[in-house]
Amino acid sequence: MAVVDLLGFELLEDRPQGEGGRWVTVRPRGPRETALLLARADGPEQEARVGDRTGGRAGLFLHTDDFARDHERMPAAGVTSEETPRHEPYGTVAAFQDLYGNRWDLVQPRLSPAYG
Q1: What PROSITE patterns does the database record attribute to this sequence (predicted)?
Q2: pTM for the whole structure
Q3: What are the residues facing 37 on neighbouring strands?
């Protein structure tokens, strides 16, 4: 299973950029307003920053309607979990790294007036 499928995304574009570079655009299935551009680091300076673009915190948040299902499927796709799931006032969350070291939070929001 491709990581795109695992995360519930669809591939919009996968185009070579020369010299080993790649331009990949994905978006969650369904919505048409959202997309992510995933570009390979270009050289040692950019490679050193992969996974640390947000000061060591997760910079990407993947919301789910079934945390247990999605959290269980991630290791099979090569995703590295950074912690056991925890319950916060806003919902269930666990940090993970994608295949390239980018930090994400998998979040199942709590449905309440305060947290939407």
Answers
A1: VOC
A2: 0.65
A3: 25
Report the amino acid identity of residue 43. G
* 3-state class (DSSP) for residue 95: strand
Does domain 3-109 match CATH 3.30.1450.10? no
Nearest to 70 by CA among 25, 31, 38, 107: 107
Q: Summarize pLDDT for 3-13 with one digit per residue, the tens.
A: 677 677 888 88
53-102 residue pLDDT tens: 677 777 788 888 899 998 998 888 778 889 999 999 889 999 998 877 77
Domain map (residue ranges) of the chain:
3-109
**Alpha helices, DSSP H only, in 15-81?**
44-49, 67-73
Sign of the Cα pseudo-torsion (112, 83, 78, 19, in order): positive
